[in-house]
Amino acid sequence: MSETEIRSVMVPLTGIDVLIPNASVAEVVSYSEPEPIPEAAEWVLGTVLWHGWQVPVISYAHLIEEAEKEKTNGSRLCIIKTLIDTDRMPYMAILAQGHPKLTTVTEDNLEEVPTETNPIAVAGRVQVDGREAVIPDLDRLGHLVAHAAFGALPLTS
């Protein structure tokens, strides 16, 4: 019997790492200053132009209350595909502290970290090879970002 492997990306944030399926990551790029969005939530840093798309940039660590503020010097933007059904926002970017690392998740190296509750947009917490990480609820995150950044997009598809 073959073991199931999920190729993933471990994205370092301030205070925590985020584990995202590799198939959801479009590209990792150097940080560029986002264009502010008037009246957006504090964790929405603005938008950047990427391959012709206005991509909202977020501080996921701020959203899930792991960090009040993240540094931008030397950081990266992890461009991820959204799961929401809209042509207006097919991508969003998470502010990353350093270089995301490819990792393979298996039953042997994955351990769930039990919690009573999770912050909004967090599906769960795990340890991969002893390194703690948050698994984002990408569907909910896409809806939150669309609503917080643009306000006009539907929250449900």
Written overview of the protein:
- With 157 residues, this protein is mainly β.
- The chain has one domain: CheA-289, Domain 4 (OB fold (Dihydrolipoamide Acetyltransferase, E2P)), CATH 2.40.50.
- Helices cover 11% and strands 41% of the residues.
- It has helices at residues 60-63, 138-150, and strands spanning 6-12, 17-21, 25-30, 44-50, 53-58, 76-81, 91-96, 101-105, 110-113, 122-128, 131-136.
- The strands form two sheets. Strands 8-1-2-11-10-9 form a six-stranded mixed sheet, with no helix packed on it. It has a five-stranded mixed sheet with strand order 3-6-7-5-4.
- The model has no long low-confidence stretch (mean pLDDT 91).
SSE inventory with pairings:
Layout: E1 6-12, E2 17-21, E3 25-30, E4 44-50, E5 53-58, H1 60-63, E6 76-81, E7 91-96, E8 101-105, E9 110-113, E10 122-128, E11 131-136, H2 138-150
Parallel strand pairs: 2-11, 5-7
Antiparallel strand pairs: 1-2, 1-8, 3-6, 4-5, 6-7, 9-10, 10-11
